[in-house]
Amino acid sequence: MSFDDLIDRHGTFCSKWDMMEPIYGVPAQDGLAMWVADMDFRAPEHVLAKLREMTDHGVLGYVDYSKPYTDAIRWWMRNRHDWDVAPEAIFTTTGLVNGVGMCLDTYTKPGDGIVLFTPVYHAFAKVIRNAGRQVVECQMVNNDGRYEMDFAAYDAQMTGNERMVILCSPHNPGGRVWTQEELRAVADFAKRHDLLLVSDEIHHDLVYPGHTHIPMPNAAPDIVDRLLMLTAPSKTFNIAGLHTGQVIIPDPELRGRFAKRMAALSLAPNSTGQMATLTAYSPEGAEWVDGLLAYLDENRRLFESAISAIPGLRAMPLEATYLAWVDFSGTGMDRAEFTERVEQQARIAVNHGTSFGTGGENFLRFNLGTQRARIEDAIDRLNRAFGDLQ
Ligand SMILES: Cc1ncc(COP(=O)(O)O)c(C=O)c1O
Fold it and tell me: Which family does it belong to (predicted)?
């Protein structure tokens, strides 16, 4: 299998390609889907073989989460992230948006303030609002195409009604890999304002050379008593449809409360999610991820250099993730115009920056987790749609 192999996903009920026309009006027959954050690659062959073995066995009854599953998660965190996880700290949810919802539900009450560093992954605000909690937007500073945080400003914003802060690490969108000092500053902020800290590290495996992801408990060991870690194999191995993610809770008291909530909702194990996770978190999986990263690295180089050659467009240099964050403010066009050019002229479906909160207004997010030929096609289309700026 090569990452270059084109795979037609139309008609598989996939959100990315099959919902492009109903949502964006970008025609299915010649549109390019570069929105939803999954990749157009097959999962690793050894994972698919294991799932085939399951279906060949044929009995798809109830399962329990097993020691091999827990061991595989612990092995991955130790080997890839230098992080020791206690087996009893691991809970499995139906994904990480569900994990965020569970954390809100377990530890906060309606009306509480939940801090986000915006622009940030849009589902956080959606879940917070739907749960009747308040989104508190702390806007990041765009320092010459690189997001940074401004804690003096955020301190002044706090009212005392805030209960939780959600960090995206590495950050989506913009692709920052937070440094030790930055993570320390987030932890200190959480401490200063007595907030629980949710660290969503779903993109932790997709980090480019020259940057190192540091898990929050390693960066700030003293705050584990207020820390809720979110991780998943879904982005890394392109198995998001199996809806399996981990909420890892180092503190026993917080863990006890979460366990009760899980039991109250009767969240039950998913047999395919368990099998795929324990198979992916292995030396073979690690080798596959190394190959994937080299491929994505070339995609991002190609895309970033082509975008920066179009006057007025600027892609934030990605340190992690396959989600390119493109700033259109240099074109002088209003949002409706640059969006129309991308969607209707170039026929590319992308995520709108406004959905990521304050600071995202002049941006569109392009998913580069696809075959090189599609990246080249996207570049050609954008060159034509913005050709008058050359
Ligand atoms: C930061 C972040 N968290 C969570 C998710 C989605 O997680 P899940 O599919 O496990 O709900 C995404 C998907 O893009 C994401 O970027």
Answer: Belongs to the class-II pyridoxal-phosphate-dependent aminotransferase family. MalY/PatB cystathionine beta-lyase subfamily.
Q: Which atom of ligand 1 is nearest to the CA of 232?
A: 10
> Residue 153 corresponds to which tokens in the numbers above?
């400003």
Confidence (pLDDT) at 220: 98
Which residue minimizes the CA distance to atom 13 of ligand 1?
37
Residue type, 237: F
Residue 50: partners with Cβ closer than 8 Å, 6 or more residues away: 275, 276, 279
Ligand 1 centroid distance, CA of 158 (Å): 27
Work out whether strand 113-118 and strand 134-139 pair parallel, antiparallel, or are unpaired.
Answer: parallel
Ligand 1 contacts (CB < 6 A) are 37, 95-98, 121, 168, 172, 200, 202, 232, 234, 240, 245
Tens of pLDDT, residues 289-300:
999 999 999 999
- If you average pLDDT over every residue of the chain, what do you get? 97
Backbone angles phi, psi at 82, to 5 degrees: 55, 40
Q: Extract the tokens encoding 238.
A: 């392109």
Distances (CA, A) of 245 to 11, 149, 241: 26, 27, 11
Two structure tokens written together for 226: 């207020």
Closest Cα partner for 216 from 244, 241, 250, 252? 250
Beta bridge partners of 247: 91, 230
The β-bridge partners of 166 are 116, 198
Give the burial class of 367: count Cβ atoms within 10 A of its Cβ; 0-12 exposed, 13-18 middle, 19 or more buried: buried
- Pick from 96, 234, 355 the residue to mutate for probing ligand 1's pocket: most ligand atoms within 8 Å of its CB: 96
| Among the listed residues 167, 170, 172, 165, the one whose alpha carbon sits nearest the alpha carbon of residue 121 | 172
As a whole-number percent, the residues of the chain with pLDDT over 70 amount to 100
Which of 237, 241, 221 is closest to 229 using CA atoms? Answer: 221
Report CA(297)–ligand 1 centroid distance (Å).
21
Residue 310: HSE in the Cβ half-sphere, 13 Å Cα cutoff: 25
Q: What is the pLDDT of residues 106-122, one digit of tens each?
A: 999 999 999 999 999 99
Enter the pTM of the model.
0.97
